[in-house]
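Design job #97: recover the sequence.
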């Protein structure tokens, strides 16, 4: 029986502006997102207020990450040595293809056709499920939200809550219609009560846990000096995957390394408060290689690059690699709350996805990636809540510059570039500026329209290309008299208040 893998990939989805325009028309999606993100924001704020020096904790964690990234090569070699000494096999994966090949080779070596998975964004990033399915190996998601996404032939839309775009009635229908095709069916008379839905998922997954011989995980952190991998989660599914199967393969981004066990203290305080609004994670699982007679007896660790060294080479934007995948930036972002995660066309949505994707892939490669740094109002809320103090707004502006630079000389100039050059020409001469002001003033004298509730007249519709502006916002009618004309009329001593 083959697993439900969901849509092949995010590839081929339209760029953010097109996808966002469609998402804005989905009222149910907006209601689901507003309710979920609002609830998480309130919980986060309450538990953060309990700490006396939250800002100091953020800065300490940021320094730890920055110092680690500055010497990442050394820490990775230490991690490899520590894991090997404890019986694990370490693999280095330059890209997604390398990482997927390792996992598939391990499965084939043991004649395994089914694997269970701990929720892992790294494995979603490399499209592991789809690659394994092509080779006849079924990958079963065990995180509740990931299970909903997989059964619903869907894609994740949030880092913490991948099925945040679904309400409980939709989830009930997915369980009722799809569970039986891939394992234990949902109970008869299934309701949309959250406890009942969780119970149905528990029965379905228990069958997977007890019958599957291989598991695949990611890791939230990898401790270099002890060779310890760490997974934090809320449901216990991760603990089942990490202890019951005979074989365990962990795919770990190279940026997840921390030097020492004591360095975990800051992160294990910051992460649960920022993500789920809890003081600590219900389940924090750690493992170091192989323990005879206890847990998996064959452990493989795949250290994944897949663009991370490319991001590391950017002296300013490398701070994005501090990210601990808490999703706090998504939950405060006014853009994400209105359009959801699918519009970003990646496993990493929201503000952090708008910077991580271009950094990992490089700009100037495809329109969808190049659009992401512009998927923001630059309100700054994401940077304020980031538990490791990533300057997300600053990186967004930095990447916008890189996108522009990447397309310099690409055939005909874009409309934006033409408009900026025209503005530079007009503003570069006092005579031209004065003429423009007089023309605008004359045009203002012809305008009589206004919008109800406004204190000054506004232009609600312009011909093309101005229509691109007015179809989304109003344009104030320019004043009949410019400041310079007023200055000349009244004299340098003012003459009018």
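Job complete. Output follows.
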């Amino acid at each position: 029986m083959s697993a439900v893998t969901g849509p092949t990939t995010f590839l081929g989805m339209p760029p953010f502006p097109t996808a966002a325009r469609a998402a804005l028309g989905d009222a149910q999606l907006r209601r689901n997102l507003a309710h979920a993100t609002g609830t998480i924001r309130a919980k986060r704020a309450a538990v953060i207020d309990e700490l006396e020096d939250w800002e100091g904790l953020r800065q300490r964690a940021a320094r730890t990450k920055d110092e680690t990234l500055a010497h990442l090569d050394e820490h990775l070699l230490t991690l490899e040595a520590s894991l090997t000494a404890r019986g694990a096999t370490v693999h280095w994966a330059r890209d997604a293809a390398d990482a997927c090949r390792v996992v598939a080779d391990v499965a084939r070596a043991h004649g395994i056709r089914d694997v269970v998975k701990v929720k892992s964004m790294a494995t979603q990033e490399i499209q592991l499920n789809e690659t394994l399915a092509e080779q006849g190996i079924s990958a079963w998601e065990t995180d509740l939200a990931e299970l909903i996404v997989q059964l619903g032939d869907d894609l994740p839309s949030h880092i913490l809550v991948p099925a945040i775009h679904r309400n409980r009635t939709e989830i009930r229908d997915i369980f009722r219609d799809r569970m039986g095709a891939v394992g234990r069916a949902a109970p008869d008379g299934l309701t949309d009560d959250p406890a009942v839905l969780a119970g149905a998922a528990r029965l379905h997954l228990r069958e997977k846990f007890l019958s599957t011989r291989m598991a695949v995980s990611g890791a939230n952190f990898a401790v270099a000096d002890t060779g310890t991998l760490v997974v934090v989660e809320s449901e216990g599914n991760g603990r089942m995957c990490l202890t019951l199967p005979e074989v365990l393969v962990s795919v770990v981004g190279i940026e997840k390394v921390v030097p020492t066990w004591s360095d975990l203290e800051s992160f294990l305080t910051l992460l649960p408060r920022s993500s789920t609004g809890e003081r600590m994670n219900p389940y924090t699982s750690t493992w170091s290689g192989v323990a005879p007679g206890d847990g998996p007896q064959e452990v493989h660790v795949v250290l994944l690059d897949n663009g991370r060294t490319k991001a590391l080479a950017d002296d300013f934007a490398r701070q994005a690699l501090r990210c601990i995948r808490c999703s706090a930036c998504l939950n405060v972002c006014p853009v994400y709350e209105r359009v959801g995660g699918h519009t970003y066309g990646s496993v990493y949505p929201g503000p952090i996805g708008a910077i991580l994707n271009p950094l990992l892939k490089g700009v100037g490669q495809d329109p969808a990636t190049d659009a992401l740094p512009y998927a923001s109002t630059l309100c700054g809320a994401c940077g304020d809540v980031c538990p490791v103090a990533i300057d997300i707004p600053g990186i967004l502006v930095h990447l916008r510059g890189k996108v522009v630079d990447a397309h310099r000389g690409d055939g005909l100039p874009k409309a934006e570039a033409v408009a900026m050059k025209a503005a530079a020409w007009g503003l570069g001469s006092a005579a031209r500026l004065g003429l423009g002001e007089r023309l605008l003033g004359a045009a203002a004298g012809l305008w009589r329209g206004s919008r109800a509730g406004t204190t000054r007249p506004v232009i609600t519709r312009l011909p093309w290309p101005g229509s691109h502006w007015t179809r989304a916002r109003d344009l104030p009618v320019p004043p009949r008299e410019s400041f310079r004309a007023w200055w000349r009329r009244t004299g340098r001593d003012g003459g009018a208040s």
